[in-house]
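In the laboratory, one determines a bound structure by crystallizing the protein with its ligand and collecting diffraction data. In a computational setting the workflow is compressed into a single prediction: the sequence and the ligand go in, and a structural description comes out. We illustrate the idea with adenosine-5'-diphosphate.
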Amino acid sequence: NSGMSEVTESDALRTLHRVFGYDAFRGEQEAIIEHVVAGGDAVVLMPTGGGKSLCYQIPALVRPGTGIVVSPLIALMQDQVDALRALGVRAGFINSTQDFDERRVMEAEFLAGELDVLYLAPERLRLDATLDLLSRGKISVFAIDEAHCVAQWGHDFRPDYLTLSVLGQRWPDVPRIALTATATHATHREITDRLGMPDAKHFVASFDRPNIQYRIVPKAEPKKQLLSFLKEEHAGDAGIVYCLSRNSVEKTAEFLCRNGIEAVPYHAGLDGGTRAAHQSRFLREEGLVVCATIAFGMGIDKPDVRFVAHLDLPKSVEGYYQETGRAGRDGLPSTAWMAYGLQDVVQQRKMIQGSEGDEAFRRRAASHLDSMLALCETAQCRRAQLLTYFGQEAAAQSCGNCDTCLTPPETWDGTVAAQKVLSTVVRLQRERGQKFGAGQIIDILLGKKTAKVIQFDHDQLSVFGIGEELAEAEWRGVVRQLLAQGLLAVEGEYGTLVLTETSGSVLGREREVRLRKEPKRVPAARSAKG
Ligand code: ADP
Ligand code: ZN
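The predicted complex, in structure-token form:
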């Protein structure tokens, strides 16, 4: 009925103008909101920063009753509620950070119909008391945020999300909208199945961020590389530098400050006051650099982040995409820059092996890492590879705005080099019963008489010095790519190298090993664009 939809459309638009102060809807927001306001279920796949919140906030305001928002991000609820209240929206939350009285107040407001939006942690919906509470009030819409948490093979799996299918059973007339920024095809299907939303309409936004230039450079001296990247291309720009550990966050921030770049650290080990202060400086000031662990960024909304740099390898493509996606929300040219090297692969493989998780967890983590490594090692367009990962088709084979498109890497037949590495590993193990890390293997190949080589008589091995045709950095590239391709594995706390099931096919000359040449120089973003 077109008459109806005109009414609801103007309701939605009026709310957008009056409450949120925005002129127009973005992308598919309008279609999504219209569909939900009319009572339909929706599954929304939209990248971070795409504007998912309005997709449930406006239906919550337009339809009678309270919109229930299920979100695992408890730490952000207070901020979200404060932001809504500042706009005059009657918002509240119920989670474990509250004491009994605070919770009581929220419950009373909900029952009295005094809330437009109520945020709930997923674990609360396991409790009969919560379901009971909900059935005594009036609900306008259920929004299930971060819906990929329902995917059992996903890296953010939350068992509590599995119980959310109960919402559809108990409240069949209340529309549900599931939202996520991270979903491959499989995850998308799992969301629909597990949340019990077979009739939901699917809204899939493009994951392409054409204004972000993706670059992955070989890691040599990461802090220095970062510094010249910043000085040459992003002087005075705001940006985020991600590091794996708190310690390297601190060191990197100090290093940048010493070298004339204003930078502050951000990680979970800092006290709340310092964290809040650094975050608000980042939002307020023009050209501040935040060095952070992945604890930083969830819910950060700064449009003019000009670069996101990674000094360590993210654990998954989802993580990489989400973190790099914080750059360039204003649509202006931005850079996603990463330094990546052999040590990243060794370290992450070691971390997975040493993790507390069970076998299934380790397999999952390893497959996430493999996808990430494939992105790092690809000789094809990075953007095309990213989009393919998210189940989307790239507009072109070559985007013209990533390092591999700008300077296509050469590949070479690395079969012989691979055999040299693998047979060194074999010799050590078979002839000496020894296992060593990449450094020693490379020293042997290069014929270096280091103290450690002498100590173990490794200069007596027949493979000693058989790799003088390549430089050390090139050998590191070979080992890194063998690890990335699963032709070599890492073992134990020292990260010693061992063969895999597929190594034999290389040693037996049954397969060719194509390797990516290590690029000499990476183009500068601005000059590359002309
Ligand atoms: P997501 O949850 O998808 O990461 P948000 O809902 O936080 O994204 O929105 C990202 C930013 O875009 C927020 O600052 C939001 O206010 C802004 N935004 C969303 N929709 C619009 C719109 N139609 N017009 C202008 N700004 C918008
Ligand atoms: Zn490209």
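Residues 381-383, 398-399, 402, 404-405 surround zinc ion (ligand 2) (CB under 6 Å). Keep in mind that any predicted model is a hypothesis to be tested, not a measurement.
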